Amino acid sequence: MPVDWKRRRTLPSGLVKRVGIVGGTHGNETNGVYLAKHLLRNPKLTVRPSFETEVMLSNEGAIAQNTRYVDEDLNRCYLAADLDDEAKKDTNKERKRAREVDAKLGPKSSENPHCDLVIDLHNTSAATDVALMMAPDDDFAHELGYHLMSLDKGVRIVNWNTQSDWPLCASVGRSGMTFEVGPCPWGCLAPELFERSLKLLLALLDYVELHNKRIASAEASLKSITLPVFRFTGVAIDYPRTDDGDLDGMIHPELQGRDFEELKDGDPLFAKFDGTRLPFEKSSYKLPEKVSSVYPIFINEAAYYEKKTAVMLFDKVDKTFQMHA
Questions:
Q1: Nearest Cα to 313, choosing from 291, 292, 295, 287?
Q2: Cα distance between residue 51 and residue 269, in whole Å
Q3: Contact at 8 Å (CB) between 181 and 255?
Q4: What digits encode the pLDDT tens for the residues 293-302?
Q5: Is 126:298 a contact under the CB 8 Å cutoff?
Q6: Radius of gyration of the chain from Cα atoms?
Q7: 151: pLDDT strictly greater than 70
Q8: Residue 181: exposure state from Cβ atoms within 10 A (0-12, 13-18, ≥19)
């Protein structure tokens, strides 16, 4: 049965009763793993008077192996159709674990999931700084993102694709977001990003508490907010390759680390191993006609080599939504 997101979302006018915080969806994204472990060891950090917080480690098998996943990417296992498909329930370790996580935080098939908000903690080898990734129709997640942007200039909002469902852990609750921070190598802690992530995460919980107080007082009024968001264009660019499919080049040194900076025609894109430089040309890619400017994100992301993706192209638009204040 398709998910009715309009009926299911946590609304800006709705009380939040339970928040889920997940670390280790990818077992080698160590910042997220140890953020969750820190909260589990110090449960008072997440206590707020008006709502409960559930903290959990998701892919414990991958965490033990210090790998992204054991059999399959767990963060591609949360489509409602897959979670409800009995034929897939024991296909592999990640499919089984997705059902367990969904039962605890969702279920996704329910109009009344356990969690009103799910925060999934990740890190990336790309220089994303703090990217908060969320569904384009999730106004409450955007409200939270708007608040965190006011606290940290490195925070940006990235929308998931516009589609009927998402295979992502953060989508099993009413509302949700992925905390994607980088650059951080696999299996390592990035101290500055860890501390900023913890500060932002606790500030998010404080804001949820304030939100609940505003709603309970019935004194809050709606106001319109506009903020910039990045949207995927549908274009993911592969590395240069040889005739037999092996790598024949890499990200150009001048592009490395420039996530979220506008990419213009003629800008360096790839450096081939023989010294040839390949510039970016927008006309070489099937970008939607309405896209005038593009922004590269997940540049040289280590996890995306297996997906044959060197960089993903996004545009930037203004999103307007209503929030209580």
A1: 295
A2: 47
A3: no
A4: 999 999 999 9
A5: yes
A6: 20
A7: yes
A8: buried
CA distance 299 to 128: 9
- pTM value is 0.96
Residue 321 is encoded by which pair of tokens?
Answer: 């939504």
Q: How many helices (H) and strands (E) does the chain have?
A: 7, 12
CA distance 119 to 249: 36
Give 242-260 as a 3 state SS string: CCCCCECEEECCCCCCCCC
Q: Convert the pLDDT of each residue in 83-134 to its tens digit.
A: 998 888 788 999 999 999 999 999 999 989 999 999 999 999 999 999 999 9
- Reading the block at residue 19, the tokens are 């928040």
Contact between 184 and 125 (Cβ < 8 Å): yes
Rounded CA gap, 252 and 310, in Å?
Answer: 11
Which residues lie below 8 Å from residue 213, measured CB to CB, with a gap of 6+?
50
Which 8-state DSSP code applies to residue 125?
A: S
Query: Which helix (H) or strand (E) covers residue 95, if one does?
Result: helix 93-105
**Cα 81 to Cα 74: distance, rounded to the nearest angstrom:** 15
The rounded distance, in Å, linking the Cα atoms of 187 and 170 is 22
